[in-house]
Amino acid sequence: MSHHKVIRSPRLARKEKKRKTQKIIFLALLFVSVCAAAVYGLSRPAFRITQIDVSGSSRVPVESIVEAVKEDIAGTYFGFIPKAHALFYPESAIQQELREEFPTFSKVSLSLKHLAALQVAVREREPQALWCAGTFGCFLIDETGFVFAPAEEGTENLYYRLEREATSSPLGIEVVSANRLAGGISFLKELEGLGFTPERMIFKREQDSEVVLSGNARLLLKEGDYSRALSNLQTLLAQGDVLPGTVTSPKVEYVDLRYGNKIYVKPK
């Protein structure tokens, strides 16, 4: 079998090379045009967030929130996509930043009112008690055990005072479990129902706690056994002459309620 070598015409080869070159140039121009159009569209002022509205904040100045959001949407992605673009603003980063910078917010929601206006809606934590941490001062704590704001002057008469020693500021962290907190506050309310005047509750590092009553009398408690402690106190009060002083101001160093149905009273 004979093989025939195909000889291409130089003229046809030049034409084919020219077509390929033209095709490459066309695709390159098309790519540049698309990129230019995209950059133009992304950089148009009509699509940039220029207005920031805030709702739901009573403890944090609106100006502080707006400034924090402006910092988050400043700059660009990859050097040309504005972070302030209505379609590409960093929603998750803004939410996280606001919650971290302002612990008083339990929730942050973002939405576009229109292409140039961003709505920031925040939900603030509700204080349940004062949390006092030694030399670091007192703070507001919510129902989850999260410390979210310094206590303002005058709030000491509005909430129960809870204490625990600390080596650093508790602001912005959960310092006690929700169940432990709810149990302590419920116990203080029950004490008031019995006629006592609880001034503060001290959480120990272990499972013990103390309640300091007016007159500096102390109730020593085992956490998780509050119902038995209340029952024992009711029994103690019913006997009349066992607890020196009055209910509002017992004349004792302490009443130890940590050992089941055994009650130890140390008079002053």
Give the arrangement of secondary structure elements.
Elements: H1 10-43, E1 51-55, H2 62-72, E2 76-77, E3 81-82, H3 91-101, E4 105-114, E5 117-124, E6 129-132, E7 138-141, E8 147-150, E9 161-163, H4 178-193, E10 198-203, E11 208-213, E12 218-222, H5 226-238, E13 252-259, E14 262-267
Parallel strand pairs: 1-5, 6-9, 9-10, 12-13
Antiparallel strand pairs: 2-3, 4-5, 6-7, 7-8, 10-11, 11-12, 13-14
Helix pairs in contact: 2-3
Task: Kindly describe this structure.
The chain has 5 helices and 14 strands. The protein is of the alpha/beta class and 268 residues long. Helix 2 crosses helix 3. The protein is rod-shaped and about 125 Å long. The model has no long low-confidence stretch (mean pLDDT 87).
Number of strands: 14
- The general outline is rod-shaped
Task: Output mean pLDDT.
Answer: 87
Q: Return residue spans where pLDDT drops below 50 for at least 5 consecutive residues.
A: none
Give the strand order of the largest sheet, numbering strands 1, 2, ... along the chain: 8-7-6-9-10-11-12-13-14
